[in-house]
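Run log, item B.
One chain of 658 residues. Sequence copied directly from the ordering sheet:
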Amino acid sequence: ASDVYKRQMIDPDSLTDDDFRKLGFHAGLEVHHQLQSRRKLFCNCEPVLEEDPHNFDYSFHRYFRPVLGEMGDFDEGMLIEYEKGYKVIYYANERNTCTYEMDETPPFMPDMETIMKGFILAFYFDCKAFAEEVVVNRKQYLDGSITTGFQRTFIIARDGYVPLQKGKKVRISNLHVEEDAARRVNWFDTSERTVYYNLDRLGVPLAEIITDHLDVDTPSELIETALQIGRVLRISKIGRRGIGAVRQDVNISITEGDRVELKGVQDIHMFDQYCRREVVRQHSLIEIQKEMQKRGLKKEDFKHTYIDISHLFALPPKKKVFATIFPKMKGLFGKEIQPGKDFGIDIFEKSMLITGIPTDYHFHSDEFDENSVRKCNNNYSRIPINDELYQKIQTLLNTKDSDAFVVVQGSEKACMHALKKIIERVKLALEGVPQETRRVTPDGNSEFLRVIHGKDRIYPDTDTPPILIDFEKLEEWKKEVGIKPWELLEELSKKYNFTQNHVDLLIRDNKLELFSEFTDELELDGTLAYTLLIEKPREFRRNHMPLTNEVIKRCARLLSKGIIQREQLNSVLEFLQENPDSTEETIKEHFSTQYNEKELEDLVKKELENLSFEDVSNKNMAFQLVLPNLVARIIRKTNNCVSGGKIAKMIENFLEVK
C-alpha cells in the first residue's frame, strides 16, 4: 500500500474561492485589542509598557498546576500545559506592577470606565443582547502568561455583526472585556523548560471580539471581516494604538475536519497564506485517516513498547536512544501536510513542545527515502542513521515491510515521555483532525501549541461581586457612539466618490474630525480636503519635511478665504513650515499674482514665441512633447496661482492645436 500511496498534498497557492467553498472552509476571528484607560483593569497601576522588556526592579518565579473546574473535572488543555513542566520567571517594575500582578493581593473593583467602553464598542457592532449583570469569570491559563493561573474576563454583549461589501453580515457572537496577559521576553527554547515574562502588560484592559466562524467561507471574507473590526476600533478611538496593541486568533475548519485555532496572527497580510496552509494540513490529515482505516488499523495496534537501541550509537553522557514500531504505517509519516513539513515532523513538534526534545533528535523511517520531505528541504535529523544502521534497527525491531518506526534521542525519562506522546498522537490520527491551538511560524505553517480548552477551564471568580448595569446607563453610553465605518463609506462615496482606501486612510491617520471641519466649516471641496490631509503629508514625509497639523490647518483657512489657490499648495506648505510666524498679510503679498487676464495672455504669447520647430518634420507631435514643460514653466512664472488646465487651454486657443 505504501508504494502506491500518494505523498503529494494539494498546492495551497492553487486554491480558489470556489475550492475553499467545496472543501467546506469556515473561519472565525478572536480579535484582542487593548483599550484606552487610565489604570489597569483590576488595580490602579498605570497601563504603560517598558521600552526595554528586560529592564526590571525585581523578579520571582512560579510553577503551575491545574485545578478542578466548576463541574469537578480537569480541562484537557490544562493537563497538557502542566505536563510541559515549565518554570516561569517574572520581571516586574514598581511603576506599572503591584502586588495584584504578583498574585499576592485580591483584585480591586474593575475599572468602570473600561466597562463603559466595552458597552460602547458593543453598540458599534449593533449587539442585541447586553449583560444586565457583569459577572467576572476565571479562565485558566497554565502557560505562565498570568501569575494567578487564570485570566479574569467578563461578557459585555452578544449577537452583533459587521457587514461585508457584498451585503453579507458576519455575526459577532460575543464581546468580552478582560485583562491582558504578561508578555514573553525571551526566545523560548523548549529544551530549557524555563520561560520569562515581563508583568508590565499584565492587567491592561482588553476587548475580545469573537465572530461566528460559520459565517465566513473564504479567506478574502475573513480578511474583510478583520479589516471591518479594525476600522471600528480605530474610528471609535476606544482601542490603543501601537505595536502589540492588537492580536488576533483565527479559528479554521473544513468538512470532515475540526476547529483549529491559529494563535497570535498579527499580520493581516498573512491571513490568506495561513488559511491556505491550514486547509491543506487538515485535508492531508483526513487523507491519512482514510488511508489508516483502509489498512485496517485500530488504536489498539499501537503499543507503548519502547526498545532501547542505545548500544548502536556513540552517545554523549546520560543520553539514550529508544525506538518503537508503528505497524502498517509505512509511507504515512512521510506524507507532506504543509509545504516543507511531513506528518512525522508535525508530530515531532508536539513531542518537542511537551517533552523538550528538539525535532532534530526525532527520526521516522520514511525519512530514509531519497524523496522524503526532510531530505528535500535539507532538514536532516541529528540522529546519525545510515544504511547499515537502518538495517540493524529494522532487524532489532523485527519490522515488516509495511511497518514504520520512530527513533528518539535524549535522556531516558524524556525519551519515554516523547514516545508516549507520539503514540498518543498517532492514535488520534484515526479520528482525523484533532482540535488544537497552534502557533503560526514565519514561513506560513503552524505547529502544535496546546489542546483547545473546553468549558471546564472557566468558572466564576469568587473575589469580585457582580456589577449591575441599569437601562439608563446603557442609554447614556449609547450616545457616545459615532458614525460607523460602513456608514462613513456610504456617505463619502456618494458625496465625493471616495473608495474604501480613501476612508481607511482618513481613519488610520486620525483625520476624520479635521476632514469634517475642512468640508463643513471651511467649505472646502472634499477632494481638496483629502489632498491636504492625506496626500500632501505623505508627499512631504517622503521628502523628509513632515507637516504639522497646525501648518495644514493654516493652509486650509487660506484656501477657504481665497488667499491662495489649490495649485500653490506645495509652495505655501513649504513657506509655512519655514516661516511659522508669518502673518496672513505676508502670505497674501507673497503668493498673490501680478497677472491679470491680459498680462497672462502676453506671458503665454511670449513663451510660445521662444519655441522653435523649424528642423522638425512633425511640428504637432513635437509641440505635444514639450507642452507639459511649457505649462509648468508658465505656472511657476505666475507664482503657481493659475491652473495648468487654464494655461493649456489658452495655448491651444492661440495655436489651434487639438
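Observations after the first pass:
- Confidence is low (pLDDT under 50) at residues 1-5.
- The first helix runs from residue 17 to 22.
Flagged for discussion on Thursday.
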